[in-house]
Amino acid sequence: MNQLSEIKKIDIKKGGKKTQDDIVYEHIFDAILEQRLAPGTKLNEESLGDIFGVSRTIIRRALSRLSYEQVVVIRPNRGAVVASPSNEDTRRILFARRVVEKAVTELVCEEADKAQIEQLKKSVRDEQTCFEKGDRAAGIRLSGEFHLLLAEIANNPPLLSFQRSLVSLSSLAIAQYENHARSHCSYDEHFELIEALANGDKPLATKLMMHHLDHIEEKLNLDDHAAPSDLKAIFSNVCK
């Protein structure tokens, strides 16, 4: 039994009800959030099976789930690739984000208790720490997970499902089009948003969320493209 198989077994035991499909899905989803998987990267089933120490059937199920969320494109007879949002796709993604984030923000203002507000603060503190340490990939992932946490607190499963797809698609669009000569201030904006949420101030919280999304869009350079990366290098962390 190889080391990857041992890692999967440990993860399944700790996760309780997690299946191998879940674990492979989460690794690929995290790689997309961290922008380690570039748009257009070919997701070879055999290579992924070797990397994760699982069968191609399990890889196919994980890729099918990601395809449902539109972050992976499964091409008949040609295999799967990471989605590459076009300029117009990116505009639509951000429009949809604004619609969903507005609803989520309003619900969090109504639903969030003190423990959940503290959970949000911890998430953003972790995000800030990663960026300050120079761990950009983890910082980007935590920035996206902050928005998923908001959707969880909103306590509306359909919105959470939409949000998972939109956040990962946004990460792909950012990886493809963001101007790299920029600074990260997402955690500052997240802290401001949390304060408004804690006070139950819907108008201010909504205004801050829209400003945050505007800021993300303003940093996009639609002529920039990211190159695909090597799968084994991308998932090297699962061997550690």
Automatic annotation (TrEMBL):
Under InterPro entries, the record lists: GntR_C, TF_FadR/GntR_C, Tscrpt_reg_HTH_GntR, WH-like_DNA-bd_sf, WH_DNA-bd_sf
Task: Please name the GO terms that the record assigns under molecular function.
Answer: DNA binding; DNA-binding transcription factor activity
Keywords (A to Z) from UniProt: DNA-binding, Transcription, Transcription regulation
* CDD domains according to UniProt: WHTH_GntR
Checking Pfam families in the record gives:
FCD (PF07729), GntR (PF00392)
Domain of life, per lineage: Bacteria
Ranges for domain HTH gntR-type: 18-85
Signal peptide span per the entry? none
The name this protein goes by in its record: GntR family transcriptional regulator
What is the protein's species of origin? Answer: Amphritea opalescens
